[in-house]
Recover the amino acids of this structure.
């Protein structure tokens, strides 16, 4: 188990081999056992294997080939629809059309997703999370027929790896861990924390290819630009509102 | 590993035994290996052991005794502060003061939290997630000195269990898993899905104790009421704004 945690690599190239149904079922069951808020289980998992539906999802996930290659695409959703329907059938007035409920359901969905990811890895499968889920949440709602009370949170592609990538580097522990309370960073701290990453071959190659001054600019100018972030923020907030999670008064 | 996933129980009573430093460090390292967006690692983990600070957190976590009992309290935060500081030092203009960035960092924080939770369980420790983190995020920011760009997402208490609870029930798989696309629920589906839960001893006892008509009303009238949800939605949205994650224009 610990070795699974320590050996995680995101897999972006997949073989076409299908996943055995019993294996897939066990992986999904591992997700369902995860911690969740008040045992309400306010999330759902959409299991997409149909090539036509996967192709529609592939378009929304920025045409990353792994979405078509991997035999299974799992979309994890914040989901109060089922719970609301239950309440309404029981003369119990649901009050879950607000941001807190959405956020709670988001946390539940991600905890379940990580259980599924790890169970898949234990079974020798590869996985990759797709952050694009948030960027095109509006279109994904349409493709997957998500009703009010349901918002896609994250996606996992799952399948047998057709690549064997190296372990990616991580920042030193002092970048992530704070003792007792938060200890903010001096310029010297930041230089020290990012030194290894900035001097890596990966960073140097990207800087050369893209003609930026340094590695930080790869993020701000190429990968995660302000204008894209603002655009996608509004897409996501509109979906949250449209799916009836923004009644905060 | 799979047995760890399938045997998870939330632990709410802890022995006072401390956690060995090397064990705690390995658990945190397991968190740091988790999948994250663009390898930006935009989250942080605050490790609180000091009884005085824990007591302040305990107050905000609705005075749940496990916060004082457990030797370690881990607050997982969405954190763009470190990344922003790095960008600014490198003449790279960060555009991460928006909702998408906050939501991305939330997902990263929760994935790391679940790795930490599972690594702790492999080491024979118990854990419990605290959803109260979102309800009192404003006060938790003060206690933990969280700067702009940092918002608490979830909390784990970690320690040696002083109870041995049964596995909690889960809804049948048909409640959570949808094939290909979302298949909405008929009234009959809902009745079937919730039948076992509603007929459980737990549900019957709670209904009797609280004098509600049924189990659904335990949630809507006692545990997660509309008025609380709306109040806490606004607390959380205000924190997101105050910590500079709502510049979406």
């Amino acid at each position: 188990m610990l070795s699974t945690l320590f050996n995680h690599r995101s897999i972006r190239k997949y073989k076409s081999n299908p996943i055995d149904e019993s294996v897939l079922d066990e992986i999904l069951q591992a997700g369902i056992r995860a911690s969740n808020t008040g045992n309400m289980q306010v999330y759902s998992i959409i299991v997409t294997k149909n090539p036509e539906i996967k192709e529609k999802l592939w378009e929304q996930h920025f045409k990353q080939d792994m979405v078509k290659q991997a035999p299974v695409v799992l979309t994890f959703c914040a989901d109060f629809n089922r719970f609301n329907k239950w309440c309404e059938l029981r003369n119990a007035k649901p009050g879950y059309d607000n941001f807190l409920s959405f956020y709670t359901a988001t946390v539940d969905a991600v905890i379940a997703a990580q259980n599924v990811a790890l169970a898949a890895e234990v079974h020798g499968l590869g996985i990759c999370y797709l952050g694009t889920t948030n960027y095109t949440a509006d279109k994904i709602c349409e493709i997957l027929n998500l009703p009010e009370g349901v918002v896609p949170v994250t996606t996992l592609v799952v399948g047998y790896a057709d690549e064997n990538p190296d372990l990616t580097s991580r920042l030193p522990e002092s970048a992530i861990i704070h003792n007792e309370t938060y200890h903010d960073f001096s310029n010297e701290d930041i230089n020290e924390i990012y030194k290894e990453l900035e001097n890596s071959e990966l960073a140097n190659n990207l800087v050369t290819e893209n003609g930026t001054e340094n590695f930080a600019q790869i993020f701000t100018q190429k990968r995660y630009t302000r204008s894209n972030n603002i655009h996608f923020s509004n897409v996501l907030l509109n979906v949250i509102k449209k799916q009836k999670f923004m009644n905060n008064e």
Summary: The domain at 2-166+227-242 of chain A is CATH 3.40.109.10 (NADH Oxidase). The mean pLDDT of chain A is 97. The CA atoms of residues 43 and 109 of chain A lie 5 Å apart.
